[in-house]
Amino acid sequence: MNNDFILVLNCGSSSLKFSLINPANGSTLLSGLAERLLSEHAIINIKYNGDKQQYAVSTPFDHQTAISCLVAQLNQLNLTDCITAIGHRVVHGGETYCQPTLINDDVKAAIKNLARLAPLHNPANLTGIIAAEAAFPALKQVAIFDTAFHQTMPEKAYIYGIPYALYKQHGIRRYGFHGTSHYFVAQQAANVIDKPLAQCSFISAHLGNGCSIAAIKDGKSVDTSLGMTPLEGVMMGTRSGDIDPGIIFHLINQLNYSVQDVDNMLNKESGLLGVSGISNDCRTVEAAYIEGHDPQAALALDVFCYRIAKAIAGFTASLTTLDGIIFTGGIGENSDVVREKVICQLGLLNFNIDTDANLAMRFGKSGLITAECSRSVWVIATNEEWVIAEQTAQLLNQEA
Ligand code: AMP
After folding, report:
1. For atom 8 of ligand 1, which residue has the closest CA?
2. Atom of ligand 1 at shortest distance to CA of 284?
3. Per DSSP, what are the bridge partners of residue 213?
4. How far is the CA of 225 from the centre of ligand 1 (A)?
């Protein structure tokens, strides 16, 4: 076995996603997901050589035990020796981290400190790092920050219209997320049009459970729709996206919501779920819309798509040229309905869909979905794990 695989870890609050990736070509040797950690129903799925294994596990099963279970499997499959380093997805890097970063005590302290900006994500990321250090003491660990790609945004894009002191003293500004995904699909689109990324301008739409749009100019992020937290911007599965902030005061002062109620409502009960009343899952909402008997499902999809189109049109103000739009993420890669509704809103900007090409682009297929007379729109399957593996390997090569 060649010694050239990176173990990529993405530690969520109750999950651990892992994959063993060849950084040179993105091929995945082993992958899996430990879910519902810290609950009675924790489970771990591992895929290796086309074989899927599921392990129900005894409680308490936390990130540490999930990593121990992974290590035991890697040992059993004789794969431990082929891991050269570990790459971690870390959600918030603040203004400090705009590059892949070798993890040491200072970096861990900074990730902990940045939990004030990402209270759900950074603590889980840190738990994964500490557990991986204990399991693989000889291996270097690298942090790839989800905010890093957007650190090139100009001040006019990241400053909110609130007192500037809140930015200076408390870091309240737009940071943006999904950076690794936006970077990956932009690089892939640049390959498609055979131009260096540094000469390309795109608007990319990462549409999954979380959704964000990014304006990419000369290969760099110049604006994005997610903000200080992953609640701003377009509507998402359960998150509202932009609302009039005055609604929050109205809910608290007039309707007796507590701050926690508002937080839950905006993060967990809004978006596709809140408007449709049936589901946060785009497939369910779309199926109800296609059946044609559920006006709320139709409305949810209309609002969802209209807001994405408005965000895309808005981001043309950040660019001087536009090579095309990119759709990615679970919805962007699979929902011909969402893509068609979004593109139909953008006729004025000379976007025209090719219906057959759009229908064909699903389940991991990537390609152009616009008519010949149109500006380009591509569907590109994202692969954040590959970017994490690639950037981890590059950093370690530079250090060697
Ligand atoms: P992600 O967070 O990137 O895994 O994306 C999850 C979202 O993708 C969910 O809303 C799914 O309903 C949606 N999705 C996955 N497959 C399809 C599909 N075939 N058609 C429409 N939406 C899909």
Report:
1. 330
2. 12
3. 205
4. 20
* Fold designation for 5-145: Nucleotidyltransferase; domain 5 (3.30.420)
Domain ranges of the chain: 5-145, 194-384
Give yes or no on whether 5-145 and 194-384 have one common fold.
Answer: yes
For residue 235, give the nearest of 204, 262, 213 by alpha carbon: 213
* 371: its two tokens: 């008519």
Q: How far is the CA of 330 from the centre of ligand 1 (A)?
A: 4
Place of tokens 């499997």: 73
Average pLDDT per run of 10 along the chain, which is 400 residues long? 83 90 95 87 87 77 86 90 96 96 97 91 93 94 98 98 97 97 98 98 96 98 97 97 98 98 96 97 96 96 98 98 98 97 97 97 93 97 97 92
Mutate to test the pocket of ligand 1, among 17, 204, 334 (most ligand atoms within 8 A of CB): 334
How does 205-236 read in b/e, with b if 16+ C-beta sit within 10 Å? bbbbbbbbbbbbbebbbbbbbbbbbbbbbbbb
Q: Which atom of ligand 1 is nearest to the CA of 382?
A: 3
What's residue 43's pLDDT? 87
Tell me, using a 6 A CB cutoff, whether residue 52 lines ligand 1. Answer: no
Report whether 28 contacts 8 (CB < 8 A): no
Predicted pLDDT at 49 = 83
Atom number in ligand 1 closest to CA 363: 19
Ligand 1 center–CA 379 separation, angstroms: 14
Give the residue, by CA position, lying nearest to ligand 1 atom 4. 330
Q: Which CATH class is domain 194-384?
A: alpha beta
- Calculate the CA dihedral of residues 352, 364, 20, 184 and round it to 10 degrees: 0
Q: Is 283 in the pocket of ligand 1 (CB under 6 A)?
A: yes
